[in-house]
């Protein structure tokens, strides 16, 4: 067998003490060397574990920060959406109210316009009536003036005739 150690035998039938001791010392040295290597390996693994644990903790903290930031952003987006919806709804309600108000004003103005047209018809009728009366009055005045001119001329003719009779 390849890994087996064969000891020389001593005179009395046992193993040679020097060989056994040398073998045990060699095994101890190899064991101690392997033990030191394993200690180094364990130390290296502990260091790596510490580094990985530290990185894990840092990443966990970073993850919590990112998660908190994500929650804040999501909350801000939700709040912004709700606020925008409220603003839109308020604007819609205000627009409806403004439309109703404007429609009311337009209706009032239409009523005023109808009233103004009615007033204009009445004023036109009154003006026509006044003009007819004025025309009639002017006609009477003209008649009186013509009559008075005729009378005056007639009076002049009579006066002239009387004067010519008187002078004759």
Give the secondary structure arrangement, pairings included.
Blueprint: H1 17-167
The share of residues in extended strands comes to under 5%
Number of helical regions: 1
Helix-strand makeup class: mainly alpha
Unreliable stretches: none
Query: What is the number of E strands?
Result: 0
Element-by-element helix/strand order:
H
CA-to-CA gap between the ends? Answer: 202 Å
Which bin fits the share of residues in helices? Answer: over 70%
**In this structure, how is the largest beta sheet organized?**
none
Please state the CA-atom Rg, rounded to the nearest Å.
67 Å
Keywords:
168 residues, mainly alpha
Give a structural overview.
- With about 170 residues, the protein is mainly alpha-helical.
- Helix content is about 90%, strand content about 0%.
- The protein has one helix at about 15-165.
- The longest helix has about 150 residues, at about 15-165.
- It is rod-shaped and about 220 Å long.
Short description:
With 168 residues, the protein is an all-alpha fold. It has one helix and no strands.
């Amino acid at each position: 067998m390849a890994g087996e150690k064969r000891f020389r035998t001593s005179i009395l039938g046992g193993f040679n003490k020097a060989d056994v001791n040398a073998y045990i010392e060699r095994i101890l040295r190899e064991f101690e060397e392997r033990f030191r290597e394993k200690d180094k390996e364990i130390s290296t693994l502990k260091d790596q574990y510490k580094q990985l644990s530290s990185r894990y903790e840092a990443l966990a903290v970073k993850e919590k920060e990112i998660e908190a930031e994500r929650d804040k952003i999501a909350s801000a987006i939700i709040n912004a959406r709700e606020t925008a919806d409220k603003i839109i709804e308020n604007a819609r309600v205000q627009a409806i109210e403004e439309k109703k108000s404007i429609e009311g004003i337009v209706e009032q103005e239409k009523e005023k316009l109808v009233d103004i047209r009615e007033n204009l018809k009445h004023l036109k009728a009154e003006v026509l009536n006044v003009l007819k009366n004025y025309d009639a009055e002017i006609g009477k005045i003209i008649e009186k003036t013509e009559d008075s001119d005729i009378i005056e001329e007639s009076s002049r003719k009579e006066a002239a005739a009387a004067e010519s009779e008187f002078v004759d």
